[in-house]
Specification:
Elements: H1 2-21, H2 34-40, H3 54-65, E1 76-81, H4 84-93, E2 105-112, H5 119-136, E3 140-141, E4 144-145, H6 150-160, E5 166-175
Antiparallel strand pairs: 1-2, 2-5, 3-5, 4-5
Length: about 200
């Protein structure tokens, strides 16, 4: 009995030590607990005049590519836009992306239609991952739709010179929030149905 207790204490001490010594997968960038991060996510449309570090941009892209995808096809393509003239041109032409004039960068999430007919589903999952990663990194971001609006898609395709088989799902402006934002309380028990529709 005494030996069993000692073995259990030893195993627990190893687990505690290994957990306390573990580092985030992307170095020393602080992030928050996954559930807290999900509940804290918000759409941010005003940004500071401050560039986003390349290391954080890489984390956003890795997060996007960590999303689930049907049959593991991964039809997504990502265009990182930092050129001021392109951001401003899209801001002028896209009705719900005016915040691009302030944003230091945008990630355009696109899908390869030759790889999947449901590319927009996989790219939506990738976009949500990018938004959650931005929240975890204390960045602000917002999903602005291109797909399925032909006029908006045409603007994005023209400005970033997408080939015909690559379609833009959305433009995600990214930057450091200029003002405090609070998440909306969206939980609604009326939306929950158990076993059958009631």
């Amino acid at each position: 009995m005494k030996n069993s207790v000692l073995i259990i204490v030893f195993i627990v001490s190893i687990m505690v030590t290994s957990c306390s010594n573990s580092r985030p997968p992307e170095g020393n960038i602080p992030t928050q607990d996954a559930i807290q991060n999900l509940m804290s996510r918000k759409s941010v449309r005003k940004y500071l005049e401050k560039p986003v570090e390349e290391e954080k941009v890489q984390i956003l892209l890795k997060a996007g590519m960590a999303a689930p995808t049907g049959k593991d096809v991964r039809p997504w393509e990502f265009v990182v836009v930092t050129e001021r003239s392109l951001l401003d041109a899209m801001a002028e032409a896209l009705p719900y992306a005016k915040m691009l004039k302030q944003a230091p960068l945008a990630i355009v999430v696109c899908g390869d239609t030759t790889k999947s007919s449901y590319w927009y589903l996989d790219c939506s999952a990738a976009t949500e991952n990018i938004l959650l990663a931005a929240e975890a990194l204390q960045l602000g971001a917002v999903w602005t739709a291109a797909y399925p609006y032909e006029d908006r898609m045409a603007v994005v395709k023209r400005e970033i010179r997408l080939p015909d088989h690559i379609l833009p799902l959305c433009v995600v402006p990214v930057g450091y929030p200029a003002i405090p934002h609070s998440p909306k309380e969206k939980y609604d028990e009326m939306k929950i149905h158990k076993n059958k529709w009631e």
